[in-house]
Amino acid sequence: MTRKAVVALVGRPNVGKSTLFNRLVGERQAVTHEIPGTTRDRLLGESFWNGVAFQVVDTGGIEVYQPAGSRDESPLAEGSADFVEEIISQAMIAIADADVIVQLVDAQFGVTAADEAIAEILRRSDRPVLVAANKIDDKRQEQEAYDFYRLGLEAVVGISAIHGLGVGDLLDEVVHALGSLAADLADDADDDHLKIAIVGRPNAGKSTLLNKLIGHDRAIVSPVAGTTRDAIDTDIVWFGERVTLIDTAGIRRRGRIQAGVEKYSVIRAMKAIARADVVLLVIDAELGVTEQDEHIAGYIINEYKSLVIVVNKWDAVEKDAQSMQTFMARIRDRLHFVSYAPIIFISALEGQRIHQVLEVAHRVWEARFFRMPTADINRLLRRAVEKHPPHAKGAKRLKFLYAAQVRTDPPVILFHVNDPKQVHFTYKRYLENQFRQAYEFEGTPIRMSFRARDERRARKMKRDGPE
Q: With a threshold of 0.70, does the pTM exceed it?
């Protein structure tokens, strides 16, 4: 399976990389904000132009400090100075992974010393490098882009990322720069692989877990809660199989979500859950299960995603022989509505039991595709009803006529009954428990649907099979 070409967007902070990224991938995937230093981690998205598909990587700004009073001196977002070295490191990794690099500059500022320093770095990359002179909002300003030819890079294109002016010309240059490489990199249309989202409250250790799983520092890790603001996809190969890991910003309680940047981060985390097959809910062992952990688990089951509960920082907890069982009982009590989810205890920082994470996630993923034989489903249903008949509502009694599993990923069981309104939620739970006892479906939700059907048609289905 061949890979897509990679185009990296780099430049100093606040020149519009995230705005251009959003336009190229066609959705608001990167956090954009007027405060420099907002985008801290690499983001990956898909783009397509003139028959060529490629991946676009957004990066944190490469910060080059200037003397006081310099024309391009600008304050970083509060706390971002703590991450300058990490942001530069992330940009360097993106450059190393790229096939074509686009350096964004601010045409309204003109060429700055920081732009020249970054161009010098890029010239050493041995990759085609284009210059996108951003914030040209009128064709009469296009001549302002020509000054950037002095950076000595491949080509200069004047654009307005926010309005779309000149972006098509830039994409023409990108496809041209990809050249024969683009023809050799086939579009990877295969989406049939395991996708795992790593979610949890801020500072629960999600990025540390991601870095340990992939073996190097892919996401910035900091003891300051809320460091990871973007959902980041990382592909790895695990025992010959492709696995996508999605790291997300920590999810806070709704009332505590700050306006602006953090709001978009939480929305992105929700989208990451929606894109995933399996979700790792990371719980801080030092804090235990909180109300927010319950809310996040609720988000996960609302999306019918498979779930693995990962108790992190287990090394920091004082333990005795019963500690693990006691903690597990507390989780089962607080998260009783996802009792089917496996629980593993790890220390991402120390690497304890890290090997179990992908093993269990893969096992849970396989359960999503298990299909029960129709005859077994109806045999199990008959026994369940005989053991515990549904309560009658008024004079009418609920009758189960026929059942079949109609799909997988996740498993969906369709019950044909005489009156769906007679099915109480407690009886649904009872039936689900009966199926789980027979087939387990570890970590995976079961969707149960009830449809009205007359008894004569149901008998025909039993005899002839599903229509």
A: no
